[in-house]
Amino acid sequence: xxxxxxxxxxxxxxxxxxxxxxxxxxxxxxxxxxxxxxxxxxxxxxxxxxxxxxxxxxxxxxxxxxxxxxxxxxxxxxx
Length: 79
Prior knowledge:
The protein is mainly α.
């Protein structure tokens, strides 16, 4: 009786490649991913700082306008 032809063993799809160019490309991709993650984290940190500085400036301007208006009202009504 005939037997089926033997097939060469294939590597699983997730097996690492032994090609140096593929290895270098994977290293570059991982470095780029890590760099992007670090940049996103630092951008988020900078945006938090920008938010609080903007809030502080707006609070200062609001207080200044309120005090200036209060002074004008006192001057206008002679208090």
